[in-house]
Amino acid sequence: MHKSFQSLFVTPTGKNPLKYEGETADGRWTEGRLLCESEQLSFPVVDGIPLFIDKAVDPWADENRRSASLARLGVPSDQLIRYNYEGLLEWPDRGRYDYWIQSIIAHGGSLLELAGGPGGGFAPLILDDHPEATVLLSDLGEWVLRQWQNLSRELNRWPNLSFAQFDVTRLPLKVKSFDAVDSFGGISNIDGGAIAILESFRILKPGGRLFMVDATPVTEQFEALPREVQAEIRHNFPAIGKGYEKLVADAGFEIIDFEETSRRKLEPGESNLADIAGKYKIEMQIQFFNLEAKKPD
Question: Where are the beta strands (DSSP E) in the chain?
Fold first, then answer.
């Protein structure tokens, strides 16, 4: 854990300060724990990564399930992250998002990558253009973060990159602690995305930026689902009813830029929504958008 982030961790619910107890190497945490005396809580730090998620709710913790899922992709598990990283560098749409990446880099300071997953969000492209960027890559899955950590060590050119495992709807981070938050599909792919937006507002410094490249179902196709199914999905994903632009504004942000971009069809097995649409024989498309917002000074 890079020194830039070491003073920023708090308990996920009470938001009480955490103190590190353990070993360090070259100023970085290695093996230890984050301790909160007032709540009598502690969270392990293993090989420099703070772990705030119980294995029972870690979607990548079950080795058999993970192996079966990765086998369908035809990529060995120990090569998945490198495969994704190298594919992202050659991504045909990279040029279309270059201005977005440059905007994040130009804003500067510390960046939180929300729910980066096996793709890493925009962090790999930001680091490819600006290896010195100070980035905290987060995810719900410890295995995913370990694989990114392994790649980082192999490449040995991202000195200010760190990792933490937590739920982005309960950020274990201090108020006003980050300069920017980035989501590349991270917010729209989780239950409670609206809460993640509120949490992002809380941890951003005044003047801090939220950068989102996310997606939502195309309205007319979504509304072809039975009403009771729509209601259940909207309960977990309120942006489908309100729209992300309104959710972000309601959280207190000033909208700087909002643009709907491309659409694509959801493929069977890609997500719960894809499976639900298939059950009702509906071709479901998702609408991508870019959103930049500012926390008022």
Answer: 19-25, 28-36, 41-46, 49-50, 110-113, 134-139, 161-165, 178-184, 204-217, 254-265, 285-294
